[in-house]
Structures are given as C-alpha cells and as structure tokens.
Amino acid sequence: MYKRFLIIATALLAVSASSQAKVRLPHLLSDGMVIQQNTNANLWGWAKPKSEVTVSASWTAEKFHATAGKDGKFIVKVSTPAASFEPLTITLDDGDGAATISNVLAGDVWICAGQSNMEMPVKGFNGCPVKEYNNVVADAANNRGLRYCKIPSVMSMKPLADANCQWRNSDMRNVSDESATGYFFGRMLSRSLNIPIGLIEANKGGTRVESWLNEASLKKYTDEKLDTMSIVRNSRYDYERTLVWGNGTFAPVINSTIKGIIFYQGCGNVGYHTTDYAFRLSKLVEQWRSSFGDVPFYFVQIAPFDYGPGIEAAKLREQQAKAMDLIPNSDMVCTNDLVYPYERHQIHPCQKRQVGERLAFIALNHNYGFSNLYCDSPEFDKMEISGDTCFIKLKKDYGGLSRYDGIEGFEVAGADKVFHPAEACHYWKQGNDPHNEWIQVISKDVKSPVAVRYCFKSFQLGNLGNQGGLPLIPFRTDTWDK
C-alpha cells in the first residue's frame, strides 16, 4: 500500500511540475525563511519547461537568471546581503506566472540532523522532559530573528525533491515543537551575534548512520543490501532502515545554501557496525559536503545510558572521538556530565540546553572569531607507568583541570585484563615542562597496572573537566575486546 501511494504521489508531482505555467517553489523556500547571508545562495523550483526564470530581490537592482530544463526544474544562484533584521522579498518569474517569497531574513542557516536526541522538542517526548521547560518557553519572548523549519520524517526509496514544511518563529507559541538541542544552539548564536539564525530540522528518532547515506555511498562504502525487501528484513524497526530516511527526510534540503551542520546520532549504531562507525560517518559528511561545500560539521557524542552488559556503547563513543580526526572541519561535544544518576535508563536525558550551547561555543570559536571561548573537551594524550601508579597526561585542558581531589570514573587493570576502581588526583610532575599537570591513578587491587580506562562503560559518570568546565572525553589505553 505504501509503495503504491509513493508511486502515485511521485507521478502527480511530475505532472504538476511539467504542466504548470507558473513558477512553483519547494516548501522550504517560502514566507518567513532565512537565507544564507553574504554568499551566492541557491534558489530552485519548477517552471514552464525551457523557460527563462528571472529572479528579482528587494535588496539589489541586479537580476538573476536561469533556464528551466525539459522537466521544468531550475536552480539559480542569487547574491545575498549581510545579515540584518530587515524583511526582504524575492520574486521568481518565468513569464507566465510569478512566485514571491516575503518576510525573508538574511542570516546564517544551520541544519540540525540526527536521531531522537536531536529530534526531541523543547516540550520533550512523553515521559522524557526537557529541564526547565516553562522557563524556556517564557524566555522565547526575547528571541529576535530566530526561526526554524521542520522537515517531516518520512521514508522514500527515491530522493524526494520537496517536503510539506513551513518556517516558524522561535517564539513563545512555537518553540515547544522545536528541536531542543537545535533551539539552544540557535538561541546562543542569535543572541551572541545579534543576527538572524535559521534552523532546518532534518532528523528521525532511532535512525542509524546508514539511514542517511544515499544509494551511491552505500554501494561504494558498505555491503548493505538496497532492495526494498532486504532493507525491511535487515531492520527490526522501520526507523532503523537503511537509505530511506535520507531519501525522504534529508534529500528535500540538499539544494539549500547553509552555514553548517550540527548532528546528534549514534545510539542506533550501538552494536551495529560499531567498529567502523567513524568511517561511515566520515562518508556521510563527504556526501553532504558534495552538495553544501566544505561546511562545518559539529556533532554530539552519545550520552551515558545503560545498554546492558558489555562495552559496545563505549566503543561507539570511541569511534565518535576518532571521527573528529577523520573528518576535516569537524568537532565534537562530550555529554558525559549531562546525565543525572537517575537517568541511567533514560535514552533522552533532560539537559539539552548545555548540549546545544556547547555546540554553539564550538561554532562561535571556530567560525565567528571568538577564540577566547573554551569549546573543546579535554582528551587523553599519553600515559606513563611507574610501579603501581599510572600517570595520565591530557590535552585541550586550557591550562587547568576542574578538580584536584575526589576525581571519579577511573579504572585500572593488570595483565589479567580485569578492571578495578581507582583513586585519582592531581600530580605535579617535576621537569622542564611548564605545563606539568598530570593525573595520578592508582588501585590498591592492581600492583602492576598495564591499562587505564575513564568512564569506558555504557553508563558511567565522571566528574573531571578542563579550565572551561567541559568534561573529559571517555577513553581507554587498551584495545581489548571486553
């Protein structure tokens, strides 16, 4: 039934696009949109086949032109102004009928992609609240020029060219339905920079990274079977299906001109191609950048959650940390400190404000020139062992660690590969290194240590951070399977 409906809908779309005598635009290009500032931005749609489409914009006397193909499709680049809160107008005319977009703002446009922790709205899911909801809604009255557009989450075996969506202001009436992570990211950018920010939400809960790879990428880089029946059989649930979510939910935004992408996904890959997740994620970024250009890609490491026995979730986080080095122009937010102990079995932790704001700190530092903002979590650098004591050196600590005593989350193992809880504290190592701050790790149960782990479990909360209060990224010094 679904397949039949899709064929009929696709056919109707083709007829509409080719037979009309008036410019038609995708829903994403509509009243209230935010257009990427200071660039040559794409506008696209359908017009009378082989007609010339002329674009007029309220901010310039210059005209922009494109020729529609035999199928009526066209795409045109328009030079855009600097960001401002002045409402703009764009008109596209093929000679037989014009389409006008009103109340347009020039600013920066970011895509918010991923699975349910990106999709989770400010009002939360049932049984999954977002912290301080009422305060967040009331504060939305202070937003200016912050807008979002939610792409409906749909599946398709072929890439869709349009989606039934509309732009909304992030105000008190609308913010409840907006991605919480995306909203807090956009709010921080908008208020810090005093410019309009547009957020395009293209996400679906439960999806795997393979759900967003297109057919060409899947064929080239994976062994996934792509016929309809195999896609269905190889997934326990529809949200895990390969290919179809990217075709249905992301393809409609692929022509957009954007500033960057934020991404929160990974839970769906715990136990599914965990060990090559970084590679597959890097290929997804390459795929998207083939359309958007070399835009920034900032992503969130999955939060602590009790997935059951084993270290598959820890391995997935390890892969995400590796992806930072594998993907140029990328960075990652660590969330190890953003889960309460009572959320052990809560896949959607409530502290979304800090997640979005940490993503914004990265963007403000890397893309907007605020190098004085601390945006990176500390990472493991190296280990030295002396007798029964391990000494751990970190990098990206911004000149200091957040606590001297009572450090939690470390474990030590000997040659038997059995890990035991360890005590950890600051250690000022003698020598010529002006930055000689190390962490001393010792366990009374391990006399000859060979390996150290920090929060390398499905659910383990640490409390060590850097000078900026950002949490240490979970790590291990071994490569053992368990």
Automatic annotation (TrEMBL):
One of its GO terms (molecular function) is sialate O-acetylesterase activity. Coiled coil: none annotated. Residues 107-361 form the Sialate O-acetylesterase domain. InterPro entries: SASA, SGNH_hydro_sf, SIAE. Keywords: Hydrolase, Signal. One of its GO terms (biological process) is carbohydrate metabolic process. Residues 1-21 form the signal peptide. PANTHER family: SIALATE O-ACETYLESTERASE. This is 9-O-acetylesterase. It comes from Prevotella lacticifex.
